[in-house]
Design brief:
Oligomer: single chain
Protein name: Threonine dehydratase
Distance between the termini: 31 Å
Number of helices: 0
Strand content: 35-45%
Helix content: under 10%
Number of strands: 11
Radius of gyration: 17 Å
Shape: globular
C-alpha cells in the first residue's frame, strides 16, 4: 500500500499502477490535452505519457496489446491522416501514445507505429 500526504492528511491507496510523481498539472475536460477512453475511464495524452488522475496522484497507463490494438506489421496500411513518406517521431505533430512496450502515434483516431518504410496500424482508440 502507498500513502500520500495532502494538506496534512494521510490518504491510503491500493493502486498498483506506476505513478507520475510531482505532476502539478490538473487533467480534465478543458485542460488542453487529448482525452482517450481507456478501459472504463478517461486518460490524457501528455508529453508521450498516458495520464489518469486517480485519488491523490496521477497514474501512468499504457494501451495494452490486444485484438483491438495489436502490434502486427501491416505494410499495406495506407492512411489519409498524413502524406506518404511522413516520418513519425517526437516532432512530427502527432501525439505519442504508449502501447505495449513501444510508442505509437495518434493519427485520425488510430495508432500508427513507424516500421521500416511504412506505418503499421495498431488499431483504433476512442477519443473522449
Amino acid at each position: 500500500m502507498l500513502f500520500f500526504i495532502r494538506k496534512g492528511v494521510a490518504a491510503m491507496t491500493t493502486c498498483k499502477h506506476p505513478h507520475h510523481h510531482e505532476h502539478a498539472h490538473q487533467h480534465g475536460p478543458d485542460c488542453g490535452h487529448t482525452a482517450i477512453v481507456h478501459e472504463d475511464h478517461v486518460d490524457y495524452l501528455h508529453d508521450g505519457h498516458l495520464h489518469h488522475p486517480h485519488e491523490t496522484h496521477v497514474d501512468e497507463h499504457v494501451i495494452a496489446v490486444s485484438a483491438t490494438n495489436p502490434e502486427a506489421c501491416t505494410p499495406t496500411h495506407h492512411c489519409a491522416g498524413h502524406e506518404p513518406g511522413h516520418v513519425h517521431g517526437p516532432e512530427c505533430g502527432h501525439a505519442a501514445v504508449p502501447h505495449g512496450d513501444h510508442v505509437d502515434y495518434l493519427v485520425d483516431g488510430h495508432l500508427h507505429h513507424p516500421h521500416g518504410d511504412h506505418c503499421d496500424d495498431h488499431g483504433p482508440v476512442k477519443l473522449a
